[in-house]
Amino acid sequence: MRLKVGDQVSLFNNTSGEWKSEIVDIKNNFLIAKTISQVSLPRPETSIDLMFSPIKYQNSESVIRQSTEMGVRSIFPTIFKRTINTKINLTKFNAYAIGAAQQSERLSIPNIHDLNNLKNQSKIISSKTILMFDENLKGIHLSQAKIKSNNEILVVIGPEGGFEEEERAFISKSSRNFLNVSLGSNILKADTAVIAALSLTFHYFS
To answer: Residue 131: which H helix or E strand, with range?
Structure first.
């Protein structure tokens, strides 16, 4: 749909909430709109982030859309040793997130970071409580996890084929608080594992 001056649109963010607005000017890729009335108030953000290994196109799209719908605050695409897809289209990822936010009536868009190697993510890992969902280790059930309510949580899902031993050691040693968590006895596809892990995390800690 091509927007034009006079059209009414919905503008939203997590600071101001959602507003019914009217376009008053359009220049190149920018538009100016005036607010008419507030539709909904801002909502509190979660403190749950996601680190995942990019997978093939449609599955990565599913991860971005569904993690946005659930309320993930930030997404960190990360290259592990066994990562197959080592390129992402950040423009498309952001478009998926915007569409998912609109569909789910979420008032914020997750911050999707540039693709980076695991070794370069140590600053992120060290600042959060890590929930590492690793099917090759015997993890605890998430209901057993002791996490303070104000802790920032990073859900970590590895690539298809799993983590390498040195990656497990790096994440464990770099984290402020590390927990290995079980998703059950079945081996899940990478995109299925992301959604299952986030569903459990939001159930217990949001």
So the answer is: strand 129-133
How much is the pTM? 0.82
Render pLDDT for 180-204 as a digit per residue (tens, 0 to 9). 988 877 777 888 889 999 999 999 8
Burial of 144 (0-12, 13-18, 19+ CB in 10 A): exposed
If one looks up domain 48-205 in CATH, what number appears? 3.40.1280.10
**Measured CA distances, 172 to 15, 136, 145, 156, 165 (Å):** 35, 15, 16, 11, 11
What are the residue ranges spanned by the domains of the chain?
A: 8-40, 48-205
- Which string of DSSP letters, residue by residue, matches 171-193? HHHH-SEEEEE---SSPPPHHHH
Distance between CA 157 and CA 167 in Å, rounded?
Answer: 12
